[in-house]
Amino acid sequence: MAQWLDNAVFYEIYPQSFKDTNSDGIGDFNGIIEKLDYISELGCNCIWMNPCFESPFSDAGYDVADYYKAAPRYGTNDDLKRLFEEVHKRNMHILLDLVPGHTSVQHQWFLESMKAGKNEYTDRYVWSDSVWEAVEGMGFLRGISERSGSCVINFFSCQPALNYGFYKPERPWQQPMDAPGPRATIAELKNIMRFWLGLGCDGFRVDMAGSLVKKDEDSKGTIQIWQEIRAFLDKEFPEAAIISEWGDPDKSLEGGFHMDFLLPFGAFHFNDLFRCEEPYFSGRGNGDIAAFAENYKELFERNSRKGLICIPSGNHDTVRLAKYLQGDELKIAFAFLLSMPGAPFLYYGDEIGMRYVENLTSVEGGYERTGSRSPMQWDGTPNAGFSCAPAEDMYIPLDSSPERPTVQAQMADSGSLYHDVKALIALRQSHPALQSKGDIEFLYAESHSYPFAYLRSMADEKILVLLNPSGKSASFDCTLPLSEKLHSFGGKITAENGKINVPAGSFGFYRV
Ligand code: NOJ
Fold first, then answer.
1. Does the C-beta of 155 come closer than 6 Å to ligand 1?
2. Is the beta carbon of 59 within 6 A of some atom in ligand 1?
3. Closest by alpha carbon to 142, among 130, 125, 154?
């Protein structure tokens, strides 16, 4: 089932900002189709596209107004179907972004559910039975409906929570998971999935996947729902894949997700690597990998048989990788990202080191996130080739720096980040040990110390990965022979007298 995940390398596309073909200053499906060859040439064979459904875009489309209709700004359902076909023609796969926990306040279901009279949608959202009572500890909307009640929100105030019930209802209006309201929500969720899988998408990235059942402290209720969804997929769409935005593989993989992301919160120490004052991958060499490695190891041991733990280069919610790392630091960070178990996820533009654009006015509920969502920089033409509209019509301004990286310039420069990323993906694709399901053993991941060394393996193949982002050469005790060099960057790595020495700012991959 979904064996295509074994060598999947994902590219995340924020459709607003990828390529505009109708000159309205905003990206579209046809633009993505135009650039599929670029993604494929880079070596990525899967796409995750952020929400592309009808929406008022108060939260970049994570506020869906119609789950069955593509947002006209991107194109029609037929255009989207054509995108699926073009993806498949190139032997690639594509995941849509599914938002199961909440809708927009403008969704017809919510408008109906606000009415005083009982109707089909009265129980589609989580409402109390009096405007004067809310759910303790949760955000809510009230005073905006004919109906007397407060409605729970899932994220922003414009995102009312769909009703999947309460794990342990405490008040009469708190519905159990098996009540007709929650069951109808699940039936509709399956229909939405059926609809898009039927049109040709290959699965979903699931937004806030852990948020469904309320007052569900250990997530047991939510896990149960996802197990039901996975059973439904296995039966009707066995090749489909789902990845959760949950950030808790112990729970998400138990729920049947094929993959979960490490997120920059929780106990993973993920931020220690790239996004903190002294990131491990900085050349200053003051970072610490030990806590990350320790946590990852435990997580991997508990979960690697259940599904994939995926480490993204960044996403539309995080600051860009290039805010904290530059030049060779980025190359070494990618050597790590592209050689870990699980499917790698590259955020569009990270492969050329696109920067976090500071001080942008918030667009579509982006706030600080807006700086990571600026238009893709393709070439040296106006608007970096993203759009032919006048610069003032760009829905988010481009990085205005004359030094902004572009695909065209990096393709022409054999020493660019683009070429390193491409080579690292190609390396991964020619060695199953480096791919999603290969095993990992950390050989050297000590507190405040460099290098970072691990062994990836699959069947008889064993590959030693050595990374030293710091500005000083570093060695560790290791008697493994560096039998065959597969790929390297920077100075010459040596093995002598039971020690391996990795020069400053270098990395290497060796068959052992
Ligand atoms: C997570 C998404 O990644 C984020 O962009 C969005 O704002 C929230 N979920 C709410 O849906």
1. yes
2. yes
3. 130
**Overall average pLDDT of the 34-63 stretch:** 98
Helix (H, G, I), strand (E, B) or coil at 94: strand
Nearest alpha carbon to residue 2 among 307, 240, 179, 226 = 240
Task: List C-alpha distances in Å: 232 to 48, 72, 95, 497, 506.
Answer: 22, 30, 17, 57, 47
- Chain centroid to Cα 373, Å, comes to 14
In this prediction, residues 189-215 reach a mean pLDDT of: 98
Ligand 1 center–CA 50 separation, angstroms: 10
* CA-wise closest residue to 163 among 142, 144, 150, 177: 177
**Is any ligand 1 atom within 6 A of the Cβ of residue 62?**
yes
Return the residue whose CA atom lies nearest to atom 6 of ligand 1.
62
In whole angstroms, give the CA distance from residue 452 to residue 474.
9
Strands 259-261 and 241-244: parallel
Using CA atoms, how far apart are residues 44 and 202, in angstroms rounded to an integer?
15
What is the pTM for the complete model shown?
0.98
From 99, 208, 263, 319, give the residue whose CB has the most ligand 1 atoms within 8 Å, as the site to mutate: 208
pLDDT (tens digit per residue) in 6-39: 999 999 999 999 999 999 999 999 999 999 999 9
Residue identifier of the C-alpha nearest atom 4 of ligand 1: 317
Region class of 349: left (phi > 0), else alpha (psi between -120 and 50), else beta: left
Pairing of strands 439-444, 452-458: antiparallel
| CB-CB contact of 77 with 70 (8 Å) | yes
Closest CA to 420 of 344, 354, 503, 335: 335
In tens, the pLDDT along 365-377 reads: 999 999 999 999 9
By the 8 A CB rule, do 231 and 225 touch?
A: no
Q: Is the peptide bond before 432 cis (omega within 30 degrees of 0)?
A: no
Calculate the alpha carbon distances from 379 to 240, 280, 384, 407, 409 in Å.
Answer: 35, 32, 5, 6, 7
CA angle 302, 306, 310 (to 5 degrees): 85
Distances (CA, A) of 195 to 21, 35, 98, 237: 27, 26, 12, 11
State the Cα torsion 398-400-401-404 to the nearest 10°.
20
Distance 438 CA to ligand 1 centre (A): 31
Q: How far apart are CA 34 and CA 368, in angstroms?
A: 30
Q: Please work out whether the CB of residue 97 comes within 6 Å of at least one atom of ligand 1.
A: no
Ligand 1 and 420: CB distance under 6 A: no
